[in-house]
């Protein structure tokens, strides 16, 4: 007989206080165990006097000094013809405290728990209650759920749609006749009405830091919508080459589409939805960052996720829904897939965010998308955020070596910040007719400052460097 993580040996009830600490420590680690009085810690049975009073004293000490209450089985037993007291105990209401302090079992020792360990134990105990995705969205009603979104999802997962309520029940997204948070953020008509953090923020920066912004856009909606727009935003703002596969042209992005798509899905699947923040896409001259609120979950570390195919899911319901439509695998293959496609990918934890960083392979071609003139315009605006239209025209004219009117300068400012702005949007923002906008754009083209890349419908504006 030897002491271990679930068995404690005491020579007699004179060690009752230490025994009570051991009971609490074993419960906190294994939720059940056994303690024997009358056996030395080396396993030698020596026995002790056992009376009814002895058993009552042990029971009372356990009742008085362990919280929450434990109701063990306590009895007199003969071991090797010696009388001993055997205490068998169990309980899942962790953490248990002995004399007001929490302990945990490590091998055959009882260690005092640190504040961090105690916090982790409490969080693990309440894990299901604390899961955001399985919480009830009390304000949401069936009318707030999109049948169209549900039908698309069920079709992809080979399931039949038979009404909103019945379909949500089949997916375990209703509890006590109330829709769960996961149901709303996945299939809601307007999830942002209930969750302002059903949001994606995207930005393109001119250099390797955030000092000069080229473009910034926010998207709101269900998670499938946000994932699609995150993917499209990256593809639209990185370089895409081509190769021939037989007789067909195949687009080749400078970052593997499979890799960054997996990172985007992971960001929305594993993010901390208790936090108000959003998933962010930041595109720099030399890299692309995908930032997700919430650090790694369940005790995982960056080293472990890189070396082992393990996954701890903060949002089990959302992960299950993604799995139904083959967005994620159940075996934690996401990180290994990313690294197989982009071996130089970095993973970081900064503040309260988990960040995936992809290196851009063609960053030397950045000038094809971001010109010196564009950076000059953005720098001027960032340094003078309250500049008037008239002054902007004068200063921009000096920078660019041409004479600019107020509306021309304002058009350049807007297009430098968002190359996809339409004439109609320019008209509304500046407050002049679309005809006037087109006339001013024609002047900017003639002056060799502005150029249209691609078609009117699918192209974009470019501030050019040379006449």
State the end-to-end distance: 91 Å
Mean pLDDT: 86
Structural class: alpha+beta
Number of domains: 4
The CATH topology annotation of the largest domain reads as Heat Shock Protein 90
Radius of gyration: 32 Å
Strand content: 15-25%
Tell how many strands the DSSP assignment holds.
20
Envelope shape: elongated
Lateral strand order in the biggest sheet: 12-11-15-16-18-17
Secondary structure: helix percent: 25-40%
Oligomer: single chain
Q: Can you lay out the helices and strands and say which pair or pack?
A:
Blueprint: E1 7-10, H1 16-30, E2 32-37, H2 52-65, E3 66-67, E4 73-79, E5 82-90, E6 97-98, E7 101-106, E8 109-112, H3 115-125, H4 127-130, H5 147-156, H6 164-170, E9 174-175, E10 178-179, H7 181-187, E11 199-205, E12 213-220, H8 223-237, E13 240-245, E14 248-253, H9 257-270, E15 279-283, E16 287-293, H10 302-307, H11 316-324, H12 334-341, E17 346-350, E18 353-359, H13 372-383, H14 389-400, H15 406-417, H16 423-430, H17 434-446, E19 450-453, E20 460-463
Parallel strand pairs: 1-2, 11-15
Antiparallel strand pairs: 2-5, 3-6, 4-5, 6-7, 7-8, 9-10, 11-12, 13-14, 15-16, 16-18, 17-18, 19-20
Helix pairs in contact: 8-9, 9-12, 13-14, 13-15, 14-15, 16-17
């Amino acid at each position: 007989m030897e002491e271990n993580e679930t068995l404690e040996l005491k020579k007699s009830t004179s060690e009752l206080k230490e025994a009570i600490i051991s009971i609490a420590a074993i419960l906190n680690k294994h939720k059940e165990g056994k303690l024997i009085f009358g056996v030395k810690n080396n396993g030698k049975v020596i026995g002790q006097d056992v009376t009814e009073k002895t058993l009552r004293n042990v029971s009372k000490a356990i009742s008085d000094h362990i919280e929450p209450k434990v109701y063990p089985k306590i009895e007199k037993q003969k071991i090797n013809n010696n009388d001993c007291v055997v205490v068998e105990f169990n309980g899942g209401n962790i953490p248990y405290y002995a004399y007001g302090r929490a302990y945990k079992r490590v091998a055959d020792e009882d260690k005092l728990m640190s504040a961090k360990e105690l916090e982790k134990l409490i969080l693990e105990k309440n894990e299901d209650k604390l899961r955001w995705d399985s919480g009830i969205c009390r304000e949401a009603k069936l009318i707030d759920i999109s049948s169209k979104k549900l039908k698309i999802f069920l079709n992809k997962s080979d399931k039949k749609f038979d009404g909103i309520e019945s379909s949500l029940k089949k997916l375990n997204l209703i509890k006590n006749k109330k829709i769960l948070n996961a149901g709303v953020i996945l299939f809601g008509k307007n999830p942002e009405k209930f969750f302002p953090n059903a949001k994606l923020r995207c930005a393109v920066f001119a250099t390797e830091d955030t000092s000069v912004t080229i473009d910034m856009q926010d998207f709101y909606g269900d998670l499938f919508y946000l994932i699609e727009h995150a993917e499209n935003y990256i593809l639209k703002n990185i370089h895409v080459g081509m190769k021939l596969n037989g007789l067909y042209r195949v687009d080749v992005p400078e970052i593997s589409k499979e890799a960054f798509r997996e990172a985007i899905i992971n960001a929305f699947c594993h993010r901390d939805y208790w936090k108000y923040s959003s998933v962010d896409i930041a595109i720099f001259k030399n890299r692309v960052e995908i930032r997700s609120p919430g650090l790694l979950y369940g005790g995982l570390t960056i080293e472990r996720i890189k070396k082992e195919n393990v996954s701890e899911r903060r949002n089990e319901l959302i992960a299950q829904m993604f799995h139904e439509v083959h967005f994620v695998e159940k075996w934690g293959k996401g990180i290994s897939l990313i690294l197989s496609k982009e071996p130089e990918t970095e993973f970081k934890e900064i503040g309260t965010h988990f960040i995936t960083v992809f290196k851009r392979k063609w960053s030397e071609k950045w000038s094809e998308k971001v010109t010196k003139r564009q950076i000059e315009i953005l720098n001027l605006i960032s340094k003078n955020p309250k500049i008037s239209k008239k002054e902007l025209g004068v200063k921009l004219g000096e920078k660019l070596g041409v004479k600019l009117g107020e509306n021309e300068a304002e058009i350049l400012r807007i297009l430098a910040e968002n190359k996809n702005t339409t004439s109609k949007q320019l008209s509304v923002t500046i407050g002049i007719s679309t005809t006037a906008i087109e006339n001013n754009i024609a002047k900017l083209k003639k002056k060799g400052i502005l150029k249209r890349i691609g078609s009117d419908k699918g192209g974009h504006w470019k501030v050019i460097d040379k006449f």
